[in-house]
TrEMBL record, chains A, B:
Keywords: Isoprene biosynthesis, Magnesium, Metal-binding, Transferase. This is Polyprenyl synthetase family protein. GO terms for cellular component: cytoplasm. GO terms for biological process: terpenoid biosynthetic process. Its cofactor is Mg(2+). It comes from Baekduia soli. Gene3D superfamilies: Farnesyl Diphosphate Synthase. The lineage of its organism: Bacteria, Bacillati, Actinomycetota, Thermoleophilia, Solirubrobacterales.
Amino acid sequence: MSAPAVAYPDHLRARVDDYLRTLRFPSRAPRTDGLEDAMRYSLLAGGKRIRPVLALATAEAAGVDAPDVLALAASLELIHTYSLIHDDLPAMDDDDLRRGRPTCHVKFGEDVAILAGDALYAEAFQHLLTAQPGEPARLLAAARELAAATGVDGMVGGQFLDVAGVSDTPEDLRRLHALKTGRLIGASVVCVLLLAGVDDEAVVRWRGFAGELGVLFQIVDDILDVTGTDEGLGKPQGSDERHGKRTYVTEYGLQGARSMAAECHRAARDTLSVVAPAGATELEQITDFIFTRTS
Amino acid sequence: MSAPAVAYPDHLRARVDDYLRTLRFPSRAPRTDGLEDAMRYSLLAGGKRIRPVLALATAEAAGVDAPDVLALAASLELIHTYSLIHDDLPAMDDDDLRRGRPTCHVKFGEDVAILAGDALYAEAFQHLLTAQPGEPARLLAAARELAAATGVDGMVGGQFLDVAGVSDTPEDLRRLHALKTGRLIGASVVCVLLLAGVDDEAVVRWRGFAGELGVLFQIVDDILDVTGTDEGLGKPQGSDERHGKRTYVTEYGLQGARSMAAECHRAARDTLSVVAPAGATELEQITDFIFTRTS
C-alpha cells in the first residue's frame, strides 16, 4: 500500500459528479424537500465514485460512448449511497462520521435517514428506467442485473451476513463480501455490457474481472481500516475491530491480507487483458487505484 | 361503517396467498436464511392482500387472464410488506404489533427488520423483471410505474410527510395520503393496464378510479383507528391519536370523515362504471369492501 499514488480517471469522475449534481427528487406534494435534502446531502458528499466511473470506463472499453451510460452510472451511485446510509444507522454499524461529515441519521434524524435510503433506491430504478437510453430488452436485462445485485443474493444479503455475524470460515467471509460489495461492483461492469448487447460468453468473462475487482476492493478496505488515518478514511480508523468484525486482516494478518491483495490485483489485471485485449487504460487505472488507494 | 359485511373476491386472495407461499429468497451464501425468515414472516402474516387482489381483478376487467399477472401482483405485496416493516420501526411509528403478531423488528431485531424491508423491495423488482411475462416495452412501463409509485413522488415521499409532520392543511393531508397509500394502490391497477398494452387515454381514466380508491382506503383507515377494536385491527386502536397524527377524523370529525368516505365510495363506483362499462364484479366488490371493512 506504500506504492506512489496512481492515476485515476478523474475526467470520468468529474462527469459523474456534474451529472449527479443535476439530479433532483421532487414530488407533487410541495413539502418533501426535507427528504430530498437528506438524499442529496449523502449523494453529493464526494468520494471516488468508483462504481459509476467503472461503468463509464467499461463503456469506453466495450466501444460504447460514456455519455450514453451516465444514467445507469448515476443509478449505481444512488444505490451505493442508499447502502451507506442504511449501513451507518444506529441499529447497524452505528457510525457517526462518513467522508468526514456527520452521517445522514446524525444530521437529519434516524427516521429521515431510513427514508432517504429507501427513496434513493427507488429513484435509482426510476432514473435507470426513465433516463437511460437503450432497447427495451437490454434495459430490462440491466435492471434485472441491478435488482439481483442488490437483493438477498447481493448487497442486502451480504449486509445481513455482516450484521448477523455468521461468517465462521474464510469461505463465509469471502461469500459475505462477494454479496455485500462484489455484486454491485460487478453490476457496474455487467449492466453496461448488457445495455451494449455484448454476447453472454463475453459477459461471463467480464464477470470474472469484476469479481476479482470486488474482492480486491474489500481486502484493501480491511487493510485501510487498520493502517489508515481517521482523516484519510473520513471515519474512525479501527472501526471494524471495535465492532468485532471478521475481516481479511483478522483472518490472515496484515501481511497475509497484503499478499492476497497483490494476488487479486494481478488476477484482475490478467483477466482484464483477456477481456479487453486492445487495452483499456481507464479500467487499468481503476484496478491499480483500488489496489494502491490510501483512503 | 355499520353496513353488513360485503363479499370479497376470496378466490383471488387465495390465489395470491398460494403464490406468495411458493416464493423463496435464497442466496449463493448458505446462511442468509435468517433474512429470508424475517421476510417471509412479514410477507405471510395474512391480510386481505388488497393490492395484489386489485391487480388480478383489474386484469379480469381488462380482459387479461389473472394468472398472467400473478408475478406483478406478488411484487406489489412484497413492496407493501416492506413499507409496513419500515413504518413499524422504532424510529418511525414504533409499533410492536401488526396483524396481531409481534412486528418484524420485535421478532428479529431492528437491524434485520431494516434489511428485510430493503430486501423485499429489491426482490419485488427482481421478481417482476424475471417472473412476469410480457413484451419488454410493456414490462418496462410497468416497472417504471412501480418505481415512481414507491419513490419520493410516491410511497416513501408520503411516509416522509407523515413522520415529518408537515401536513398543516387539509390539502397537505390529501397529498400525504395520495403519495403514501394512493400511489401504490394506483400502481396495482395501472401496472396491469400497462402490461396489457391498454391505450394512454384509458389509463388516465383508470387512474381516476384508482385515485378515488386510494383516498377511500385512507379515510376508512383513519375512521377504523378510532372506532375499531385492537383485536380487529391487529394493532393498538387509537395509535394515530397517540402519535399526534393529523387524520381525516382529527380534521373533519368522525361524522365528517364518514360522509367523505361515502362520497368517495360513490365517486369510485361511478368512475368504475365508466372505465368498465360491461361491469367488473370483483372490482365492485373490492370497492365496496374497502368502504365497509371493519378491520
